[in-house]
Amino acid sequence: QVQLVESGGGLVQAGGSLRLSCAASERLVVISTMGWYRQAPGKQRELVAGIISGGMTNYADAVKGRFSISRDNAKNTVYLQMNSLKPDDTGVYYCNVKARESLFRPENDYWGQGTQVTVSS
Predict the structure, then answer these.
(1) Rounded to an integer, what distance in angstroms lies between the CA atom of residue 121 and that of residue 70?
(2) What are phi and psi of 87, to 5 degrees?
(3) What would the 3-class secondary structure string for the chain be?
(4) Interatomic CA distance for residues 21 and 39, integer angstroms
(5) Distance separating alpha carbons of residues 30 and 94, to the nearest angstrom
(6) What's the distance, Cα to Cα, between the start and end of the chain in Å?
(7) How far apart are CA 79 and CA 95, in angstroms?
(8) Separation between Cα atoms, residue 70 and residue 57, nearest integer Å
(9) Model confidence over 44-98: pLDDT tens digits?
(10) How far apart are CA 59 and CA 65, in angstroms?
């Protein structure tokens, strides 16, 4: 079974930067979408950034201009570059990938285990 392994979270001061990575344990043949979600304490999980086939991206208003999502299809990896971090960015970040394990299998929805990002003031 394909698993998504996240890394790059940690504790940073406001104004600092982090880069999150999410890599699939096995090669995914056809990837339709990749995205990052986050969940702050006491709040619902929300979409932070997404990228679809063709390279189009979208971002939550709160992170526009500060965060950037990118992908490396050859490595089955998605990244989230986070700059000018604010305390409100604190939360658990989850990567999500919608993809096929092969051309003969249906598309599945995969989730990472979550990585903690804490921004101090």
Answers:
(1) 27
(2) -55, -30
(3) CCCEEEECCEEEECCCCEEEEEEECCCCCEEEEEEEEEECCCCCCEEEEEEECCCCEEECHHHCCCEEEEEEHHHCEEEEEECCCCHHHCEEEEEEEEEECCCCCCCEEEEECCEEEEEEC
(4) 17
(5) 20
(6) 40
(7) 9
(8) 9
(9) 999 999 998 888 999 999 999 999 999 987 888 999 999 999 999 999 999 999 9
(10) 9
State both tokens at 79. 């990244």
Distance from C-alpha of 4 to C-alpha of 112, rounded to nearest angstrom: 5
Tokens of 2: 């394909």
* Residue whose entry in the numeric block shows the structure tokens 């089955």: 76
